Amino acid sequence: MADPQSNAPSRADAGAPTSGVIHVRTRLTADFTVISNALAQRRGSAVTVGVAAYISSLPDGSSVTIPALCEHFSEGEILISRALRELEAAGYLERRRERTPTGHVRTRTYFYDVPGGDPNLDPDPDGPPEPPKPRRPRRQGTSAAVPPASAPAGETVAAAVPAEAETPIPLADADPRAVAVLTALRRFDPRLILSAQETARLAPAVARWLAAGLLPTHITDHLTARLPDHFLTRPVGILAYRLKETPLPVPARSTEPSTLPVVVPMRNCDGCDRGFRSAEPGRCRGCRAEDQLRAAG
Predict the structure, then answer these.
(1) Is 154 left (phi over 0), alpha (psi -120 to 50) or beta?
(2) Which residues in 212-226 are b (16+ Cβ under 10 Å) and which e?
(3) Which of 6, 171, 178, 192 is disulfide-compatible with 185, CB 3.0–4.6 A?
């Protein structure tokens, strides 16, 4: 008798899952990027994870500005900007404003595979990696950048907010003229809307500019000139940076007496009614000469 035959498919291997995704792994030796599971499996926006994966795959020196990312992705500026802010808040992305030896200010962007890494440390390919140092948490609503532990030679990191703005005074105690200048900025640029706390932080710096002799129109022109097309953070950081250095005061007027020559007033001659300059009224030089001739003759 022949052996029994069955049309049922053979049972799958015991180690294979019965549902869900099944990975087909391929060993890559080039053109691949390593991303941590914490970043790839991050809960929230898929745009944020996609932007992070794209930035991780780019070589150093590539542009990661919002316009550059919008040229690659189909999402608009709002979603891309929101994704960058989420990555910055989570510690994967950091922007630093640095001043070059020539005096120009530039923005450097650091992207961390693991939040808390130090960009100034060179990785050692032969030894095990050191655990990252904990980073100081950033305060929400402020644009103050934490200076690095060590900056490159010949470069200094420019803080976005002056030291005086770290301990703001109450808004009720601020200079009313400075508050008026800050609240009127929205008339020139609708994006320059400041909260009460931000106005209190910037008011002391504006008051020093006013005390130096600058008019409110001069300060407004300085704060609103050549603003960027897109704000990556709140505009208070840009305004605070432009108010960082206090201008020189206007020199006081000299109290010494004037050294200008005294102008002798014009008078009419009592004899011929011609005009002549004299400290006292009387006759002109010609009439006085005729009088002398008559007296002599």
Answers:
(1) left
(2) eebeeeebbeebeee
(3) 192
Q: Which helix (H) or strand (E) holds 105?
A: strand 105-111
Report residue 145 as tokens.
């950048």
In the prediction, which pLDDT does 70 show? 92
At position 128, the amino acid (one-letter code) is P
Count of beta carbons in the 10 Å neighbourhood of residue 252: 7
Report pLDDT digits (tens) over 20-54: 888 788 888 888 888 888 888 888 889 999 999 99
The position carrying tokens 């950081």 is 237
Q: State whether residue 276 is helix, strand or coil.
A: strand
Contact 44, 50 (CB under 8 A): no
Place of tokens 């003759």: 297
Report which of 206, 221, 214 is spatially closest to residue 249, judged by C-alpha positions.
214
Tell me how far apart the terminal alpha carbons of the chain are, to the nearest angstrom.
180
pLDDT band at 133 (very low <50, low <70, confident <90, very high): low
Rounded distance, CA 72 to CA 161, Å?
Answer: 33
